[in-house]
Amino acid sequence: MVSGVAVVGDAAQWTAGLKTLNAHEGETLLKVTRQIFPHDRLDDTDYIKVVQDLDAEAATTPDTAKVLHEGVATLDRNTNNKFITMSSADQVAALKNIETSPFFQKVHGTELVSLYNNHAVWKKLGYQGASYPIGGYIHHGFNDLNWLPDPPESASPKPA
Amino acid sequence: MARFDPNDDSVVVIIGSGAGGGTLANELCQKGFKVVLLEAGKHQSSATFRNDEWFAFNQLAWLDKRTTSGNWQIAKDSPNLPAWTCKTVGGTTVHWAGASLRFQEHEFKAKTTYSNVTGANLLDWPLTLAELDPYYARAELKMGVTRTNDIPGLPGNNNFKVMYNGATRAGYKTVHTGRMAINSRPRDDRSSCWQLGFCFQGCKSGAKWSTLYTEIPKAEATGKLDLRPESRALQIQHDKQGKATGVLYADKDGKHVFQKARIVCIACNSIESARLLLNSSSSTFPQGLANSSGQVGKNYMRHTTGSVYATFAKPVYMNRGTIMAGIVSDESELNLKRGFAGGFEFETISLGLPFAAAFLKPGAWGRDYTRLLDQYPNMAGMWIVGEDMPQESNAVTLHPTEKDQWGLPIPNVHYDDHPNDLAMRTYAFKRGADIYNAVGATQTVAVPPYPSTHNMGTCRMSENPRDGVCNKWGQTHDLKNLFISDGSQFTTSAGENPTLTIVTLAIRQAEHIADESIKKNL
After folding, report:
1. Interacting residues of B457 by C-beta distance below 8 A, sequence separation 6+
2. Are B103 and B221 in contact (CB under 8 A)?
3. pLDDT (tens digit, 9 = 90+) per residue, B73-129?
4. At a CB cut-off of 8 Å and minimum separation 6, what does A135 contact?
């Protein structure tokens, strides 16, 4: 993985590390991935990681490279080369038009796994991940919900 | 551990090491039988399991390519993954959530009870609850099912608190933390539940019953079990007299081995069990082994499932603790006034963020969807498990052109939702939402079925050999030393999770095999 992603949104910093995609394709895919699963709590770095995963697959899978190159070209053609500068609403509309395309499906499918399997994203969206290292939730809040009454012991016995 | 020669024709060969095969292997070994247990997957352990949904999925799931057809949403959402079952020692007992409910008396008589449901290929089981009850009791004792044998129930987690309060406010009466094959106290040299929240990923505490670390090591301790992981059954062969002679399989190096057998038992989960019989056709059995009825692969069932998730103003953290932490049983009773035959249970369910993103709305994207995922910590979830109707056209068949790495046709799984299934799901979605709305849900989401973990019925039991593949012992009508030992022998699906009944039938089948062997009938 690229380690120099210190300056968020600095295209020169992170797109330089792409193997197969060019800088414009990287920047476009960053916008696309942000629109597919837009979370205000996430940073560009989280989406850049998805683009890097796409780039890594493209480096070893010519079909993926082709789909991504052509997909970005199509998006640009459909929007008169303005996709990355369009308003958010217009970007969504442009993506809606191609949501059944192999390009969209590839980006969506990769992002679905890559974005939501990123531990930094887990933290920001409130998912706690592995519990084995803390011995499970038995002593860490498995039944700490306090805005509803506790069920009777007949329904929910006390822990051993 | 024993090692038997491939030419040793005194062994019982069992294919598949899950709830059916793993249990049967132990039961037979305890009775002195020599058993070769073939398992397609690798041998993992609690130490190699990881609390990581995608990692565990790739480590444990059966991912060989399959195709789908029919009007079920699975054919659109995951066309090459119709089922979420396991390829690993212990089979799907590594993944299951532990719910262990007996079937009800009327569910063994689905045809009689529901009379004629148009389009359904209903049949009564050649078995009654009374016949199975003593074996259910043995299964519950073996598995350490809570709320049986004086074993206390598990403590409910946050997800259950939401279900309990909502369900009781919505008028339901039978709501508790379920009958679970998960230790609420240390038992059988296994710890009590740590409330890890990763039941589906292989239980790292060992509190959840799985053949991987119960039946299989116990069988090995007898010195009668030859467990062969990474051994993929390709074909069952037979002699001119119509007796199974053994199993051809590919070992971990891809080498073909023919293991002779006196008895062959198939427990590969419903899709592969049927496929194996169909792929074992011969000049004597041109439409597939044990298929004189034409019912092999037919009547595929997967339960009328679906989930309801809801978001709340305050945190829930459904990810903490057991996945199936509680149950609402009121809807499982016989009640034909709801506009559909069969009943269902509500059981809590939870998914981690990675799988929630993948499954809550398959294919969804954009702001509406991420607004829901942003609510992850405030989300509660429940699963619907209800009886689905057997239909002859819902079937596992061999793909006409696509073959696997061993040159055998891959399976196609065809499933059309029956109108009864749709009516039940619609009703259950509404009642599930009622439960959450009763405790102030800010949003409820009806989630379509995931790839099927409950796969049943492709080699069903029948009184009359014309109607099904095996008799009430799981013994095939056509070959007397060939047995079906998994959920594919189910005549109908009932409205309860299948594992307890699979284990129960395996215990009973082992007894039958022993009795018939003593009488020289086998």
Report:
1. B270, B299, B300, B301, B390, B487, B488, B490, B491, B492, B493
2. no
3. 999 999 999 999 999 999 999 999 999 999 999 999 999 999 889 999 999 999 999
4. B194
pTM for the model? 0.97
Q: Do B352 and A137 touch (CB under 8 A)?
A: no
Whether B107 and B122 have beta carbons less than 8 Å apart is answered as no
- The reply to whether residue A41 touches residue B374, judged by beta carbons under 8 angstroms, is yes
Q: What SS3 state is found at B83?
A: strand
Instruction: Report which of B2, B23, B7 is spatially closest to residue B507, judged by C-alpha positions.
Output: B23
Best interface-test mutation with A: which of B172, B184, B195, B360 has the largest number of A CBs within 10 A? B195
What is the interface pTM, i.e. ipTM, of the complex? Answer: 0.94
Among A145, A146, A153, A154, most B C-beta atoms within 10 A, so best to mutate, is A145
User: Phi/psi at B398 (nearest 5 deg)?
Assistant: -85, 135
Q: What is the pLDDT of residue B239?
A: 97
User: Which residue in B176, B321, B352 is closest to A127 by CB distance?
Assistant: B352
AA identity, residue B393: S
The residue type at B349: I
Beta carbons of B176 and A156 less than 8 Å apart: yes
Q: Which residue of A has its CA nearest to B356?
A: A116
- Residue-level pLDDT at A7: 45
Cβ–Cβ under 8 Å, residues A94 and A78: yes
d(CA B157, CA B323): 9
Q: B49: nearest CA in chain A?
A: A132
